[in-house]
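quick one: adenosine-5'-diphosphate bound model?
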Amino acid sequence: MNSALDIENLSVSYGKKIALENISLSIPAGQITGIIGPNGSGKSTLIKSAMNLIPANSGNVRMLGSELDKVRKRVSYVPQRESVDWDYPVSVFDVILMGRYRPGRLFLPLSAEDRKIAEESLERVQLTEYRNTQIGQLSGGQQQRVFIGRALAQRAELYLMDEPFAGVDAATEKAILDLMFDMKSQGQSIVLIHHDLVSVRDNFDHLVILKNKLIASGPTSEVFTTKNLIASYGGSMRIMQELDV
Ligand code: ADP
Ligand code: MG
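yep, here:
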């Protein structure tokens, strides 16, 4: 099976604090993969380090079977919403259009085709009526969709998303999920960090469970077990009862 993401012996620390310890895993292409674990378990660090946004102490990462530099434009990263300055004075359409810029052709004018793709992406995330709205004026769910719209405009093959469901309303959650299933049906690979355990079983093909070390990585049906969840989240009975695993 083709791999979307292969990580070998990845260790990352912030000063003396170890965020990730010797992680090795493979995420299959063409599937929806969830990365779960409690707060501080290294989920964001894993994606940022894989994207080369923060340095690793050691390790080797391959995306779509190659080094990131060779496939960067086929990979799209959607950061956590809180990590962005939403006061920046740009419109919804401006942000989505940014998905069409490429390293190396940053100063070239965008083509009519680029604009058309951005328009389609705007529509796919259901923000057409907010086209000219400044991004700071949107709700949390709408902001999340702007990000996803920008990622869609990139026409990537691998999407890495950091908590796309955090702070969104139920309607947006449903819209994002539908979009992901749609992307998967077109052969794209989706890897997303997720917080809410309740919806894991129904939505993810593959699951990575972290607690600064790798607890498990595999098909959801195999690794979404009480034992693995306790290893990651601790023995909170409330979580286990809610999930009935
Ligand atoms: P998660 O996304 O699972 O909540 P993170 O990857 O953000 O976890 O963080 C993993 C660990 O690294 C946490 O203990 C966190 O406090 C620490 N950490 C994350 N970012 C930084 C940073 N910029 N400086 C120092 N420590 C950090
Ligand atoms: Mg995080």
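The two ends are 29 Å apart (CA to CA).
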